[in-house]
Design goal:
Blueprint lengths: L3 H12 L4 E6 L1 E14 L6 E14 H10 L3 E9 L2 H12 L7 E4 L5 E8 L2 E8 L7 H17 L2 E7 L8 H13 L4 E4 L13 E2 L3 H8 L6 H15 L3 E5 L4 E5 L4 E5 L11 H14 L4 H15 L10 H9 L2
Helix pairs in contact: 1-10, 2-8, 4-5, 8-9, 9-10
Length: 330
């Protein structure tokens, strides 16, 4: 029998259908080559992959977008792709998710960020990256911010995710501009930061780094519960964020709100692949907050979502029916 919180979580999942979430950040293509290994190359001591399958998935901020859509919400992307075949594939993937494309800017001077993973069964053999980590130029920045403001003014956007992978889209002026426009319209901003510009994200609604990123940014070792407590309070002091959500990998996550600090243990039953789990967490939390959820309820549901996707190979979106089943058991 479900308790009062379970009913509240299910109600949130129902209410998120049709809400709009803007996603700003590094759009990527995840390309997979999978096969089997039966031989070692005579040319070098490396395995030979007999290719069985090749496929593409949305990566980076695009993975956040597909998670938002999987929950039944509308995702509005803002990012940059190259004028290349990988960029065309990203556009096709986003179009298949029925996204508005006005905020996807094509920059002919940079490649579409693409991560090609070569897999033997479930074993990750090697990854090949195509990317530029240089910041976008002023013209691209102006186009991006113009599209963002127009969308915020025209659409009933309920939450904004900034997904930063340090690939050059999230310049400091883009960061400040997005947060300022969000404040003008009283829209919560949730941030998944990376090392560069880590503390440029000021006064946001949710600041969500992982443990490794936090240890590097604070230049300290984080191993004990006391270390975690000190780290999240330090993050609050340095970012002035309303809420800090520190993801702890296989251990779950810790949430600091204005009222309390809450440890949320993982719900994962198996771990096949952690890639994309952070995208799922911030996508789910943003969508739940867009539907009116408070930070604690939203974080608990996001933790369940992460527990589901880590059981799958590759950065796959959360299955909403599986999530519904999981939250009934909280």
């Amino acid at each position: 029998m479900m308790n009062q919180n379970n009913h509240r979580y299910i109600n949130l999942l129902d209410r998120c259908v049709g809400v709009s979430v803007a996603v700003v950040g590094d759009l990527m293509l995840d390309y997979y080559i999978t096969g089997r290994v039966e031989r070692i190359s005579p040319e070098a001591p490396v395995p030979i992959i007999d290719v069985e399958k090749e496929y593409s998935l949305p990566g980076g901020a695009a993975n956040v977008i597909q998670n938002v859509v999987a929950l039944g919400a509308h995702a509005i992307p803002f990012g940059v792709i190259g004028n290349d075949l990988h960029g065309e594939e990203v556009l096709k993937l986003l179009q298949s998710l029925r996204c508005m494309m006005d905020g996807v800017i094509v920059d002919p001077h940079r490649p579409t960020t693409t991560k090609t993973r070569i897999m033997a069964g479930s074993h990750h053999i090697v990854r090949v990256d195509y990317e530029s980590r240089h910041e976008i130029d002023d013209l691209v920045q102006q186009k991006l911010m113009s599209a963002f403001r127009e969308a915020i003014e025209a659409d009933h956007i309920r939450a904004i995710v900034i997904q930063d992978y340090n690939k050059g889209v999230m310049r400091e002026d883009v960061i400040r501009g997005v947060i300022q426009i969000a404040k003008e319209f009283s829209i919560p901003v949730l941030v998944d930061p990376k090392q560069k510009n880590f503390f440029a994200y000021q006064n946001v609604s949710v600041f969500k780094p992982n443990l490794r990123e936090t240890a590097a940014a604070l230049n300290r070792t984080i191993e004990t519960d006391n270390d975690i407590q000190e780290a999240i309070y330090s993050l609050r002091e340095k970012t002035q964020a309303e809420n800090i959500l520190l993801t702890l990998g296989a251990a779950g996550m810790t949430l600091l709100t204005n009222q309390q600090t809450l440890y949320i243990p993982t719900t994962a039953r198996k771990v096949a692949d952690v890639s994309g789990a952070g995208d799922t967490v911030i996508a789910t939390m943003a969508t739940m907050m867009a539907a009116g959820g408070d930070p604690i309820a939203s974080a608990r549901i996001a933790n369940c979502a992460a527990g589901i996707v880590v059981g799958e190979v590759g950065a796959v979106p959360v299955n909403k029916e599986h999530l519904r089943t999981a939250v009934k058991q909280l």
